[in-house]
Prior knowledge:
Layout: E1 7-13, H1 17-28, E2 33-36, H2 63-80, H3 85-89, H4 98-110, E3 115-118, E4 121-129, E5 132-140, E6 154-164, H5 170-174, E7 179-180, H6 186-189, E8 199-200, E9 205-206, E10 225-228, E11 234-235, H7 251-258, E12 285-290, E13 294-299, H8 320-343, H9 349-355, E14 360-361, E15 382-383, H10 391-395, E16 407-411, E17 416-417, E18 435-436, E19 445-448, E20 460-461, H11 470-476, H12 479-498, H13 508-517, H14 531-537
Parallel strand pairs: 1-2, 1-6, 2-3, 6-20
Antiparallel strand pairs: 4-5, 5-6, 7-15, 8-9, 10-13, 11-14, 12-13, 16-19, 17-18
Amino acid sequence: MTAADTQFDVVVVGGTPGGIAAALSAGRAGRKVLLIESHRHIGGMSASGLGKSDVEKRHLIGGLFREFTDRVRRRYLDRFGERSPDFVLCRDGYYFEPSVAEAVFDEMLGDCASVFVLTQHRLVRADVRQNVLTRIEIEDCSDESRPQAGSVRHFWCSAGVFIDATYEGDLLAAAGAEFRLGRESRDEFNEPHAGHIYFDYQAAKILPGSTGECDELLPAYTYRLCLTTDPENAYVLTEPPRGYDRGNYVAYFDDLAAGRLSGPKTMKPGRGYNPAHFDTMVRALSVSEIPNHKTDVNINPRPLGFPFPEENVGYVNGDEATRQGICKRHRELTLGLLWFLQNDDDIPSAHRDIARQYHLPLDEFTDNGHFPFQLYVREARRLKGEYTLTEHDMTAKSDARSGHADTIAIGEFPIDSFPCRKRQPGDSLVLEGYLGMLDSVTQPYEIPYRIMIPQSIDGLIVPVAASTTHVAYSSIRMEPTWMALGQAAGTAANLALADRMQPRSVSVDSLRRKLVADGQVLGAESLNPNAAAVARTRKTPQTSRDGNRELYK
């Protein structure tokens, strides 16, 4: 990249699905956009093992996410045909192989000539003048020992609007925007499930030992695996990973004996339930079928032997070496779990036989040892924005919930937080911090534009590390929702540039009209049949006791 290329209308940091949606919505409006990603690949978690879309109510998320699923569906239809089991397994494009997701994102970006994609580059610092973010410094992190001839390793990029679409909130922090990190106390926003908590996910009740105290702990990070059941496409582990310690996994034997690896009380599709795995050690994993003899594999957070909590301590504020070390540790723990399930002599042979049906695929992540490139950063920094979304925004009864004047997307996934602490003395049912409220009280809810707008920094929109509490983030943190927010961010950036104003001042009516025209789902009419009654309760936001700031004076 040369100096002449460093002036853009919009710069998006983070090639996540939310960042891609932001870049596309601004680029399709004719803006010159730069999309920056530190990995070799774009697509974030959707292209790195998260092979099923976390959507409970499909009709509530449209726009660019719907276009993405339509393109995925078309690829599988063209490849396998309508009557093929593989086509059926794509579930109308909502389930996909990582390589297919990446190819579709590449295709969508390739169709938009005004979007420039720069991979293997990371943010160094931000330049803020009079509280306005004006430019950022980025560096080439591809192969630092052998710079390409004529390349510039460090350079500055200027833009009218910046969009932070990183999972970590790196740009907002570099720009000096205020943020939250960790869990609020129960008292701060009067959220029943905030802070230190033990939650019985089957009975949906808070257990003794829950103090509600705040802390800086975060939900466990993991890798989301794509595994194949095709022996011809299998990369079989022949030795344990470096640093392997079976002691990290032996607690699963206690889970098996106590019945914590049995099936759920209620079977629901899309939850990774496989009856063949119930009451076996393989229930340490949650396995869902996706096309082409592959599976989306989550690490089941419900067993007390789940080894990943607290392994992410230091990641968010760590330097690059610290982060890479934590990623390496998670990779070793993940491969170690797979090795343990397939090979440990103390595991019943029938269980090992099941585990040996699943292997890393030869045709995925071919430049990374067939292992996902993106650590599943479920939560990191969260912006302190003009509005803070809380548990109350998403758990009120639908006939009593009021709307927002600046709604730009709908959230619909239940509150779902991974554990924050490893097993503690006395733990017998659930790990501390786990909020598996999948069949509980979360209702579809409206998401206001203000959660993407910093309180004091201009020139910046934050659709991923948005302004919520920890509990609320546990619902909003889904890639389809982030794509909806990213689309709104890119659209708002274009309007801000067109009207020569800061993003916080754009016309909400114009923004909402454009989003609806582009297929975004908005408003109370999508949420419940009493739309007229809800519309009457829609009111202009006011400053409240929890610090949320008004949108209109």
